[in-house]
Amino acid sequence: MTEDDRKSSGQPFDSRMLESLVCPSSHAVLSYDAAAQELISKTARLAFPIRDGIPVMLISEARAID
Prior knowledge:
Layout: H1 3-6, E1 31-33, E2 38-41, E3 46-51, E4 54-55, E5 63-64
Antiparallel strand pairs: 1-2, 2-3, 3-4, 3-5
């Protein structure tokens, strides 16, 4: 899967979803990176992709961040 495949196809992410979503690994709150179309878990150091406006909350699909 390429980086372009990971990006949203233009469907906006509803940031109100952040109120109910937590990191599946650490159960910490997430922050939204609009430029990268990702939800970031600083605690777990993972970035979860948003595809077609839908967050993919699978650890196997997350990108490790520094």
